[in-house]
Amino acid sequence: MASDVEANAAAEAPEGKNWKRKGKHDKEKPWDEDPTIDRWTVEKFDPSWNEGGLLEVSSFSTLFPEYTEPLLVPSAEKYLQDAWPIVKGALKEFGVSCELNLVEGSMTVLTTRKTRDPYIILKARDLIKLLSRSVPAPQAIKVLNDEMNCDIIKIGSIIRNKERFVKRRERLLGPNLSTLKAIEILTGCYILVQGNTVAAMGTFKGLKQVRRVVEDCIKNIKHPVYHIKELLIKRELAKNPALATESWDRFLPNFKKKNVKQKKLNTKEKKQHTPFPPPQQPSKIDLELESGEYFMSDKKKSARKWQDKLDKQSEKSEEKKRKREAAFVPPKVRMSSCIFSVGFSFACVVTKSCYGFQENTQSTKTTGDNNGIADIAKSLKKKAKKLRNSEAQENVKIESYVASNEESHSKKKHKSSSM
Predict the structure, then answer these.
(1) How many other CB atoms sit within 10 Å of the CB of residue 96?
(2) 405: helix, coil or strand?
């Protein structure tokens, strides 16, 4: 039976063509060349096509960040909580349920028994993705329509340098968002640049153009203004039906990237040209001959090198020692505020008030201590008078006062031993 069918098909086949079993079903259909049929239109879903509903529950969930920059609200939780009834009502028409979890910071969409359209769950997934990328709820709900589609372009991983990334992202926006608005008008898409992503909503053709413009801008391949010029030219050419079947390459401008190298200014001063060559520099042997080192034995040479090394080490050690001792040098003290430290804790300022304080405190101490303190006070008074009279002396030598203190202690011990 099969052989008869193949024989009939081979007989029906036009002459000059080899019959192939592989393409026996590739026959021309009467509706292939029908100009009245538009193959790009998407028919609206009819619930009668799927009266039984879905057998399994499908769900999608996504997290949302805490910030929402373009919406200018305190937090994303507050905005989503206010806009959630609108989202819930829009999804209820298609038989899809949604949940907002503020504790985990997530949004979930699920199919129910009332769901008839099997593709609507993917549209609901795109809806919560757009809401998480700070797209306003009234605009994001439009993605549920069959004619509307969305695309989220990730631009954060294209370039590593953060400063370049910020500059190129601002280039995409333009001054006062003028570049972004021009791209939106020419492509017929809604575009929102947020953080490391670009959210776009529109037709498939417009989304393809938007992705090309965004990626070329971030990769620094072509400026968005050049893309805008091309889109304007294509828009005008599309109005002419005679050019529908022709190539538009001859009308489009060719923008070539040019890296113009800036000439560096020569800041070096030109030397005067002399016909005579510079004098020859003395070699190492010539220097040794001049110093007499050339005629020295190896032992003397090594001994000389060792001595030079020791001299350098001693110089460095002396410099370090000077730096360490500089911290312990006492500052210069004036005569009026001279302080004499005697013994372990005895200190007295050589002023009139100090002397009065000593005379008042002498009556409260024992007779043995009074004699020692009186001797010390007399010696201090004498030395203070000498220091006042000598104007040439500026620095106070503390060692002399310490020595006098030791003498006073020795006298005190001598008196106690005689007692």
Answers:
(1) 24
(2) helix
User: Which stretch of DSSP H or E encloses residue 381?
Assistant: helix 367-389
Are 94 and 109 in contact by the 8 Å Cβ rule? The answer is no
CA distance 116 to 391: 112
Count of CB atoms situated within 10 Å of the CB of 64: 21
User: What does each C-alpha distance from 134 to 63, 68, 89, 188, 346 come to in angstroms?
Assistant: 12, 6, 19, 20, 78
Q: What is the DSSP string of 71-95?
A: TT-S-HHHHHHHHHHHHHHHHHTTT
Distance, CA of 234 to CA of 206 (rounded, Å): 13
Q: In what order do the strands lie in the sheet with 96-101?
A: 59-63, 106-111, 96-101
Query: Helices 162-173 and 204-218, interaxial angle, to 10°?
Result: 140
Cβ pair 315, 309 in contact under 8 A: no
Q: What backbone phi and psi angles, to 5 degrees, belong to 38?
A: -100, 110
Whether the per-residue pLDDT at 359 is higher than 70: the answer is: no
> Token pair of 311, please?
């001299």
Give the pLDDT mean for 263-269. 71
Over the stretch 81-134, which tens digit does the pLDDT of each residue have? 999 999 999 999 999 999 999 989 999 999 999 999 999 999 999 999 999 998
Is pTM beyond 0.85? Reply is no
CA-based diameter of the chain, in Å? Answer: 156
DSSP assigned state of 347: E
- Distance in angstroms (rounded) separating the CA atoms of residues 151 and 198: 8
What's the rounded Cα separation, in Å, for the pair 414 and 419?
A: 9
Average pLDDT over residues 149-161: 93
Q: How far apart are CA 116 and CA 94, in angstroms?
A: 8
Burial class (CB in 10 A: 0-12, 13-18, 19+), 135: buried
What is the rounded CA–CA span in Å between residue 131 and residue 141? 9
Is residue 347 a contact partner of residue 335, using CB atoms and an 8 Å limit?
Answer: no
State the DSSP H helix or E strand holding residue 365, giving kind and residue range, or none if neither.
Answer: none
Q: What is the DSSP string of 305-327?
A: HHHHHHHHHHHHHHHHHHHHHHT
Q: Which of 66-70, 80-84, 160-164, 280-284 has the lowest mean pLDDT?
A: 66-70
pLDDT band per the 50, 70, 90 thresholds, residue 330: confident
What does the pLDDT read at residue 69?
54
Q: What percent of the chain has pLDDT over 90?
A: 40
Task: Give the CB-side neighbour count of residue 79, counting CA atoms within 13 A.
Answer: 21
> What's the start-to-end Cα distance of the chain, in Å?
153
